[in-house]
Amino acid sequence: MASDTPDAAAPATATGPNQLAAAFGRELSLASRSVHADDYINNHRAVAPPMHVSTTFRYSRDPEILKQWSNIDPNAPHDSHIYSRDSAPNTTRLESVLSSLLGGPTLTYSSGLAAFHAMLVFLNPKRIAIGGGYHGCHGVIELVSKLTGLRQLELESDADLAQLQPGDILHVETPLNPTGEARDLAYYRRRADELGCYLTYGVDVILHSGTKYFGGHSDLLSGTLTIRPDHAVTPQPDGKPNWVDGLRIERLFLGSVMGSLEGWLGVRSLRTLELRVVRQSESAQRLVDWLAAEINTPGSEVGGLVAKIQHASQQPEAQDAGSWLRKQMPNGYGPVFSLWLRSEDHARRLPSKLHLFHHATSLGGVESLIEWRAMSDLKVDKRLLRVSIGVEGWEDLRDDLLQGLRAL
Ligand SMILES: Cc1ncc(COP(=O)(O)O)c(C=O)c1O
Question: 115, 248 in Cβ contact below 8 A?
Fold first, then answer.
C-alpha cells in the first residue's frame, strides 16, 4: 500500500525545500536560489520546467488511502495537486522559488491588487493607514470599505496613526510608485509594534506586484503575499489556522489564483532576477546622476526643460553612510524614477520623441518605459513623467533622452 506521508517515497536527492542549505551547510546566494530553489520539486529528467495546463488531478487508485481534500502522490509529494483553484504545478514551483528568495512562505495571486485584496479580506482590519503611492491600492480599499466599513487613515499624519488599534494595518509602500523614493521600514516597524498593528511591506506581510520585476518581461500579471515565518506556524495562539493555510483556504474561494502559463513564465523570469534588476538599477543610477547634474547646471539645455528629478538616491539620507536608507537599500536604489518637466505640454510630448523608451504604463520589465503619468493616474501633477529603466545600454538611453529633449 502506498504511503501518503509526504516524504516517504521521494528520491534521495529531492528531500524538500531546505535540501540545498542542508547540503552546503549554509544559505546559498540569491542568484543560486533563483535557479535552484525548486529543484526538489523536479522529479522529471527535463532540465527546464514543463508547462502543465491541467485544472484537475487524478486521485489515488487505492481506495484505502483516499483522504478528503488530500491527494499526495508518494512519488512526487511536493508536486501533488487536486484542483488548480487550490494549487497547480507551475504556480507551486513559482511559489517555492519566491518563498526561498523572500525568506517566508509565499502565495501567488492573479495580480498585485488581487493579492492586496486577499490580504485585506484575511486580516479584516477596521482601519488601514496608507500614504500616497500606487493609486490602485486606494481603489481596492474603497471597494472593501463598501463591504466592511474599513476606514482609511493617512500614513504621514501622527494624529491618524494614533487612531490605529491592534489588528489594524500600516501599509508602507517602498520604493514609492511613481517617484521611486523609499520609506523607512524600521521606523514603521517600531510604530506598528507600539500600536499592535500589522505592517505590510515590512515584516508581517510583504506584498509584491509580481507583474513588475518578478515577471520582468512585461508579459505576466501576478501578485504575491509573503508571510512572516512565525505567522506560518500551527497552531496559532488564537486557535485559528496559521496565516498561510488561512490565506490559501480563502484564495480557494476568492478564486484569484495565477494561471499556469503565468506560473511557468514566472519561474523562467526569476532565473535572471538578480542579473536583470542589478543591471536595471545601475543604469537608472547613472541616468539619475546625469540628469540631476544637468538640472543643477545653470544654463544647461536639459535643465531648461526638466525642473526636478525624484529617486531614492536623491533623498538626503543617501549621502549618509549610517542612514536607514543606505541600510534598507544597500544594493542600489531601483530602476524607477520620476521627472518633472517645466511644462505640461512638454511632459505630454516627450514620450513621442523617444526611440528606446516605450510610452506605456507599468514598470520593472527589460524594456525601458516612460509614462506621462496623467495617462493612468488622473490625480497626479500633469508635468510628471515616470521612467522605468530596462536592460538596454545606459549610454543609449541617455542619448535617446537627450535627443528627445532637444526635439521638444
Ligand atoms: C506599488 C504597487 N502596488 C500594487 C500594484 C498592483 O499590481 P498589479 O498591477 O499587478 O495588480 C502596483 C502596480 O503598479 C504597484 O505599483
Answer: no
